[in-house]
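Backbone-to-sequence.
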């Protein structure tokens, strides 16, 4: 059974930090990623990572503030979020791709991923 379970969201003040976690069970994911969805907006890509963790890529809006990494031994994906801004307020979703992934290609579309977690709420107060 494939499961992705996020945790670590919460209410923080502007400038604060959070670390989101995503516990994975089931098959090995060739790519994993984080997306977010703010109220009234479409779900958008935030960060992605390859199987080994060496290849990471980010949306321009979060580069330098967000860090994605994974611990394959623990089967956990993380997203470290620093210098939080009110516009980071959203539900954050973990996503996993089980289909073949080609080296050097960036998978950042909703359709690029096969499994999703239920989401964790991040709220940033001004």
């Amino acid at each position: 059974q494939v499961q992705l379970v996020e945790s670590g969201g919460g209410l923080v003040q502007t400038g604060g930090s959070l670390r989101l976690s995503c516990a994975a069970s089931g098959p090995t994911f060739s790519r994993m990623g984080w997306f977010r969805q703010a109220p009234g907006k479409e779900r958008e890509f935030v960060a992605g990572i390859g199987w080994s963790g060496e290849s990471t890529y980010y949306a321009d809006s979060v580069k330098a503030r967000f860090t994605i990494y994974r611990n394959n031994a623990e089967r956990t994906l993380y997203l470290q979020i620093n210098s939080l801004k009110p516009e980071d307020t959203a539900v954050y979703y973990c996503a996993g791709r089980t289909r073949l992934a080609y080296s050097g290609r960036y998978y950042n579309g909703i359709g690029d991923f096969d499994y999703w977690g239920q989401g964790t709420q991040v709220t940033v107060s001004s």
